[in-house]
Amino acid sequence: RVPCLDLGSLGDSDEEDGNSYIPYSGSYPHICRLDSSSNWRASLQTPYAQHHQAQQRSVLQQKTIPENLPSPTDRYKLKYRQYEADMKEEYKQYSQRIAEKKKDHLRCAEASMKLEGGHNDDLTALDEKALLQQCYTGKPYNKQHSIRKSEAEDVAAERRKQAVVEQVMVDQLSRAVISDPEQSTRADVCKEAHGLLGFGTAPMRFRKRTLHETKIRTKSGLTENMLSNKLRFDSRIISRNGRDACRELIGFFFACDRSLTVYEFRQFGKNRTNALPFIQKGVYEHQRGQKKGKAYDLSDFYIGANLTFRSFDHNLPESFKQNPVVTLRVTSIDEAAMDFLKAASMKFKQECSKQVVDNSKVFKKIQGLCVLRETLSKRGVRVITGLGKYFRHIDKNKNGFLAQADFKEALKLFHVEIPEGDFESLWLILDDSKNGKVDYGEFTRAVFGEMNEYRKAFVRKAYMKLDFNKTGSVPMVDIRKCYCAKKHPLVLAGKATEEEIKSSFLETLGESCSNPNEVSYSEFEDYYEGLSIGIMDDEDFVNILRNPWGI
Questions:
Q1: To which H or E segment does residue 33 belong?
Q2: Where is the EF-hand domain (predicted)?
Q3: Do residues 13 and 20 lie in contact, with contact meaning Cβ atoms separated by under 8 Å?
Q4: DSSP element (H, E) containing 169
Q5: How many other CB atoms sit within 10 Å of the CB of residue 280?
Q6: Among the three residues 424, 448, 472, which one is the final residue of a domain in this structure?
Q7: Which pLDDT score is estimated for 48?
Q8: Cα separation of 522 and 238, whole Å?
Q9: What CATH number is attached to the domain comprising 331?
Q10: Predicted local distance difference test score (pLDDT) of residue 41
């Protein structure tokens, strides 16, 4: 007999030691214990049970693993490595999802405390309502949907770029010599007037001219092979005009003659598209900055670079004529073409003058001030949008330029403290024309910095979705219709309604607008510029735009 604990009435009772026993006849495969709920469980508490299970394990191993087992094949090893890599990737994604959920939970908890009345003494009600938008950091789509959406967008963008490339090559290579106005030269007109064209020659208006009869030569001897050595780049216009800021520009820099051209891609309806020259092909020079007067070269093209042109030299819309200089910001470049041109060019040098380095240090010093960063971390939306609204109000000439005293008064009004020495250094850099006035958009970007081009692209995409007629302003009624708060964490948790989140957004956005009934592009951009300061990760900021606007 073997002792069995908690056997109850099923076992024989021994009065001497108070334990219960079950008879063992040698036919049981292992010893079992009965707990209080009358369930049999494997017991490994006895030496016999451990020995018996070891024997069973040994027999099982002998049956499943032959002695002459061949070594794994290379195909099996490859499959195992793929399986191992997939498992590691899945675990990595799982860890990222857990981390994102924790981060979203913390943001949601903070926002919930603010919504329930846990006010911070340093923040106003508008600041707290603006911070509710920072909760939109969760991914709006699942992985498969996100991949399909991004792939579709990439395909559409590549088609647009390819259409522009083809149009550029056609425009540069198809020189219409036959219909060129230089065909009707003054000499031919004089000969015709004096009857000197010769017998049997028809007048100019009746003659059918062919390419072989032309008397002029094409101005350019470029071939398709020469034009193929080009750098393609995307750009946008730095402007407060929403219609101009949302123009889709694609430019080309030709290494053969160091010329460049910029085309605008336009879409009319769903199927009709067109690519029109925005900046005609030519050799251009810098109009501002330390390189003013120097021709553009390959080193001037990188993400974030500014390209400046004189507005009167080009056939541009009237909205550009207010400013003598048009500034384009490079948003992306063809990295493969850049690497190829760098390798082929022996003269490529990434020059950076001492003055440029000193200017960059001044900007970083001001943007890195502890007092300034602390002010913007929680009040970024109110400060950026408030300054923009104030600048637009005092800009009586509506040209975007203000004097030094105006900027000092604005900083004082919004409690933004900058040391006097740093302010003077900044002013010397920005006032490169020495006329005593500076564009307030440049001043704001120099003091507070700006979001990178990746973030800016999604801001433009959201605004272009709202301003589908490309008027440059969006009625507040349309914004109310398009804004969706279903995926806000507080709504999903049941701590706030969709209408409460939507009303808080519209209230903070409307506060930054000069006209409460419509939102201009500059006001929309300023709002998300201030919101961007408190978001460290780019994908979190992109999700803040994707969730409510569905882009």
A1: strand 32-34
A2: 382-417, 418-453
A3: yes
A4: helix 143-173
A5: 14
A6: 448
A7: 54
A8: 10
A9: 2.30.29
A10: 43
Residue-by-residue DSSP string for 378-408? HHHHHHHHHHHHHHHHH-TTSSSEEEHHHHH
Q: In terms of Cα–Cα distance, which of 172, 170, 302 is closest to 233?
A: 302
Of 313, 352, 307, 305, the C-alpha closest to 331 is 305
Average pLDDT for consecutive 10-residue bins of the chain (551 residues)? 45 44 44 42 50 61 65 85 88 77 59 51 70 75 72 84 87 60 49 49 54 51 76 91 89 90 85 86 88 89 91 84 88 90 70 68 77 72 90 87 90 87 88 86 89 91 88 90 88 87 90 88 91 85 89 82
Same domain, 396 and 417: yes
Q: Which of 448, 473, 502 is the last residue of a domain?
A: 448
Q: Is there a domain that residue 443 lies in?
A: yes
Dihedral of alpha carbons 327, 390, 502, 489, sign: positive
Same domain, 362 and 341: no
pLDDT at res. 475: 92
Q: Residue 394 is part of which domain span?
A: 358-448
Residues 317 and 246 occupy one common structural domain? yes
CA angle 10, 15, 17 (to 5 degrees): 95
**pLDDT reported for residue 370:** 55
pLDDT at 62: 54
Orientation angle between helical segments 521-532 and 370-394, nearest 10 degrees: 170
CA dihedral 367, 369, 374, 377 (to 10 degrees): 10
CATH code, domain carrying 412 = 1.10.238.10
Q: Do 366 and 421 sit in the same domain of this protein?
A: yes
- The answer to whether residue 22 sits within a structural domain is no
For 43, left (φ over 0), alpha (ψ -120 to 50), or beta? beta
Same-domain pairing of 338 and 373: no
Q: Are 274 and 323 part of one and the same domain? A: yes
Asked if residues 464 and 408 have their Cβ atoms less than 8 Å apart, the reply is no
Contact 404, 355 (CB under 8 A): no
Looking at the structure of the chain, the number of domains it has is: 2
- pTM given for the model: 0.68
Same structural domain, 309 and 365 = no
Together in a domain, 327 and 387: no
Is 413 domain-assigned? yes
- 362: in domain: yes
CB atoms near residue 121 (< 10 Å): 4
For residue 299, count other CB atoms closer than 10 A to its CB: 16
